[in-house]
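Data deposition worksheet. Section B asks for the primary sequence of the deposited chain exactly as it was used as input, without tags or linkers unless they were present during the calculation. Section C holds the resulting structure in token form. Section D is free text for depositor observations; keep each observation to a single sentence. Incomplete worksheets are returned to the depositor.
Section A, Depositor: J.P.
Section B:
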Amino acid sequence: MNPPYRPPPKLCYIRPMPFLNAFFKRCNIQSDFPFRSDDSYVVLPWIIAFMVYLAAIFLSMGVNFGTALAGWNHYYTNSLTIQITAPKDTGEAATRTTLDALAQLDGIAKTTVLDSAKVRSMVEPWIGHGGLLDTLPLPIVIEATLAEGSSIDASAVESLLATKLDKASIEVDDHQAWIAKFASLIRSSQWIAFAIVGVIVAVTLAIIVMATRTELKLHRRTLELLHSIGARDAYIAKQFQTNALVLTAKGAIPGALLAAATLWAVGRLADGLDAPFLPLFALSPQHWLTLFLTVIAAGFIAFLSARITVIRTIGKLV
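Section C:
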């Protein structure tokens, strides 16, 4: 005698956010299809959460790079750095002469002489601590801030100062050479981040399409029954797209919140670093808007892809 049939045990999963399940239950979302019995009902939110987390992180990186690049361009394209190497006994005189010459130029709004401690801190990362730094003559560094909308030829300023300081070595830098290379690197990194987001969107779209097709095949008998009593394709598609939207929301919201927590933690760690060239990692209104739009975009992609998949596939099954 054959033993009685026993169905295989259901896999035990941990749901991403139990309170979201309670919320959607209270919304009283009804369906003619037993979606809750599908493994995808629990597995898909985890996949969506991971994809939304990655997309939000890389989108935030793109936002950080764009904001930082705009700030760097505004600061460094509106300033000149004058470096003067002169004998110790003529250093103060060279500084006064340089400041007087810069004050006579149109377009310079402010000049600042960096103190020796600041210059030393700028040189130490390259030379290191020790007696070697004490024996080297530190240059005089002057930062000149240009007036808004003004531009000055660095080579012309350097020639002017050379005529006034014949015993000093002068170098005037307008930062254009290295800021152009640096901007190119940042823009490339930004486009790479956006390209990765595009790949994540494509993979998520493929996952939702495959999950929807699998659900259509699993509930084929229910589908045929609904068709036999006159249910239209739009009515059936509405239930599948609503299910896809609910599952996506259950995963997208926790994924976005986890991304926000990650950005906050990285921002706290970056606050202790003295690295002005690092982009800002603190959560800003732009980051919150990015996280919100990521959740909305995930829901829209799931809703639309599920509907199109059902409409195109339902005629082949019934």
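Section D:
The two ends are 39 Å apart (CA to CA).
Residues 5-14 have pLDDT under 50 and may be disordered.
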